[in-house]
């Protein structure tokens, strides 16, 4: 079985190389901080868990930059079956399990549009989200949401489900101010936010049953310059035995 565990972002310290170069008296304690989007797994036998997602990922970006730990660890798949993966999905990881029931088809690589600029900002010594900039002059970011409402009859089977919110979530990196971020659910606008340079994010209440979950980034001239549209509709009740609280994640294009 292939084990995809985590990606470690190294700042000022690089433990193996530095340890070899320094004497024991020169070594010091290393502080690390984890970065995770959320946790969800639905494995039965007391292993059905949700740990808050919504805007946890961009909030952690800001916390890491403010605290400036020596190491920042991006939790991409701490244990096979937990929902915080941001990389490729390997079928051999989940062979013989029911993990695929809630993970197959739920691609989270859209979060990489946020992670890559965060890594660059962290390594360069940035101290705030306003310093996490897109790689060019075009906005980047992602949209994410659950495809099942919190009120679904199966939701109480998930430990900690009470933390969940029926929101459309987004994080967008802007090259400058002057943009507006518009958020939609079921093809109805549920939020509009003035953007500023760097990291912009929000958990917008109003996720509703149906299709048409999307965000638009609009420039000062009123033109849509980037958007992300969910491929999965939202349901009030589960259509099968899986109470799926995994996220649909879509990057801007």
TrEMBL record:
Q: Which domain of life is it from?
A: Eukaryota
**Pfam families, from UniProt?**
Glyco_hydro_71
| Annotated GO MF terms | glucan endo-1,3-alpha-glucosidase activity
Instruction: Kindly give the Gene3D superfamilies that the UniProt entry links to this protein.
Output: Glycosidases
Q: List, alphabetically, the InterPro entries matched.
A: Glyco_hydro_71
Per the UniProt entry, the signal peptide is: 1-19
Q: Which UniProt keywords apply?
A: Signal
The name this protein goes by in its record: Uncharacterized protein
* Organism expressing this protein natively: Trichoderma semiorbis
Q: Does the keyword Signal apply?
A: yes
């Amino acid at each position: 079985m292939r084990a995809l565990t985590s990606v470690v972002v190294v700042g000022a310290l690089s433990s193996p190389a530095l340890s070899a170069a320094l004497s024991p008296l020169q070594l010091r304690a290393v502080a690390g901080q984890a970065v995770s989007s959320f946790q969800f797994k639905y494995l039965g036998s007391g292993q059905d868990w949700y740990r808050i997602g919504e805007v946890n990922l961009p909030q952690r970006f800001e916390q890491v930059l403010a605290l400036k730990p020596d190491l920042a660890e991006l939790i991409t798949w701490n244990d096979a079956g937990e929902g915080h993966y941001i990389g490729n999905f390997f079928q051999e990881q989940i062979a013989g399990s029911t993990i695929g029931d809630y993970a197959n088809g739920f691609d989270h690589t859209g979060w990489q549009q946020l992670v890559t600029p965060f890594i660059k900002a962290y390594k360069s010594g940035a101290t705030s989200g306003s310093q996490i900039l897109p790689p060019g002059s075009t906005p980047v970011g992602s949209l994410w949401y659950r495809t099942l409402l919190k009120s679904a009859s199966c939701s109480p089977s998930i430990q900690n489900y009470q933390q969940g919110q029926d929101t459309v979530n987004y994080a967008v990196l802007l090259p400058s101010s002057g943009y507006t971020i518009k958020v939609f659910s079921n093809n109805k606008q549920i939020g509009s936010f003035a953007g500023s340079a760097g990291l912009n994010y929000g958990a917008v209440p109003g996720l509703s049953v149906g299709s048409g979950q999307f965000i638009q980034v609009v420039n000062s001239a009123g033109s849509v310059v980037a958007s992300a549209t969910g491929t999965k509709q939202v349901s009030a009740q589960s259509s099968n035995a899986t109470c799926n609280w995994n996220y649909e994640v879509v990057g801007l294009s």
